[in-house]
Amino acid sequence: MLVSYPDNDEIDQDLAKYLYEQCAILIIEGLPVNSEFGIDLSTFKTGQQFMGVKMIPPGIHYFYVSAIGNDGKQYGPRIGFYHNFKSKEIHVKRWSTADEDFDESFQPSEDYLSRYSDNLNDLDRFLGAYRFSTYKTYSSLTVKITVDILEDLVPANLKISSAPYLVRDPDKDSGERPATNKRRALRTEPDPTAESLLPDLQPASGTSIRFTKIPEKHNQLSKEMDPKLVTQFYLDSTMRLEYVFKTDNARQRLLAEFQFSFVTLIMGHVYSCFEQWRKILILICSADSAIGKYHQFFIDFTRILGCQLEYIPEDLFIDITDTDNLVRHHLDIFFQNCHNIQEHDDALKFETDHLRTLLEQKYGWQFRLEPEDELPVVAGGSGVG
């Protein structure tokens, strides 16, 4: 479907009719009133008649629900999905009030879906309109994410939750109550701490996002290398970056995963996505020797990071950098590394200058373009009398 989408939410009647008929529709059955619903970068509070969203442009979108609890007061975790919407598709999910979760057993048949498609005119008033004012920004934040990469990333059960689905680890949790242990009953050991009394929990099978494993500094790579290269390995992450690049389409995948982690963190409130976003940021920013070798990759990374920092809520980014100085530190390293080669690279210079200016103007940061040990030294003197 070739159409120029509006960049605001003021849509004339003819265009609205066309978009309603040609774009996709998302329906969520059984969602409690006053729940929180979000799609891409927009959030809604559900009313009495809310059933979903209309006029969703074809492509990959993220939607989530934070349902009001059975007590009518507390909101549950954000639970959502990525879905590749097709033109004219009607995608239906069902909420289980009893489980306070999506009903995984619900699989609507073609006949079931046709009941909705045959009654589009009656359905219209129950659907909120997709907010096109956010679509351009969302598209720029997800431009590298393809369907194939997305399928590799999302959990096996397709569902992404801000609260991990945890179960007891059968290999570590014997189920034995510490208070009944003979040795403790005989007081031959100190009383257990509160932490030691907790069961050993792990994410339930099929519920974790399948992130790329980022090699740590203290890993097998450094143990097997020539001792002469160890220092370089710890200062420059190029070897670890190239280890990630070994798989097919790895550069595209890493950038897509960087975008996926950011959007899912911002909209889904998934903490593991922040951890992965930070790991990828640090890995790329400290890969000094790789900049000249993977020229376009670093230009794309700088553009992506610039889009993210333009969008991210200021209070959230300040909170991230205040509690984690590694982000600020490695951005400093990145600008220094780029400065060393960008005299011969106009495209990279343009992107890094834009990113650095954004950070300086928005957050008041100042960056050194030369390492401290390369700054000129001013020698003191007694002067000439």
Describe this structure in words.
With 385 residues, the chain is of the alpha+beta class. It has two domains: 13-134, Sandwich (Substrate Binding Domain Of DNAk, Chain A, domain 1), CATH 2.60.34; 160-172 and 199-372, Alpha Horseshoe (Serine Threonine Protein Phosphatase 5, Tetratricopeptide repeat), CATH 1.25.40.550. It has helices at 13-22, 110-117, 120-123, 135-141, 147-153, 182-185, 194-197, 220-224, 227-235, 238-244, 250-268, 271-285, 295-311, 314-323, 325-339, 346-363, and strands at 24-29, 36-39, 42-45, 52-56, 59-66, 79-85, 90-96, 101-102, 127-129, 160-161, 166-168, 201-203. Strands 8-7-1-4-9 form a five-stranded mixed sheet, covered by helices on one side. Strands 3-2-5-6-10 form a five-stranded antiparallel sheet, covered by helices on one side. The longest helix has 19 residues, at 250-268. It is globular, with a radius of gyration of 26 Å. Mean pLDDT is 84; it is low at 176-189 and 375-385.
The average pLDDT value, as a whole number, equals 84
The amount of helix comes to 40-55%
State the distance separating the first and last CA atoms. Answer: 83 Å
Q: Mind telling me the C-alpha Rg?
A: 26 Å
Number of strands: 12
Task: Please tally the helical runs, counting DSSP H or I stretches of 4 or more residues.
Answer: 16
State the fourth-level CATH superfamily of the largest domain. Aar2, C-terminal domain-like
Helix-strand topology string = HEEEEEEEEHHEHHEEHHEHHHHHHHHH
CATH class of the largest domain: Mainly Alpha
User: Stretches where pLDDT falls below 50 for ≥5 residues?
Assistant: 176-189, 375-385
What can be said about the biggest beta sheet?
5 strands, mixed
The tally of domains stands at: 2
Strand content: 5-15%
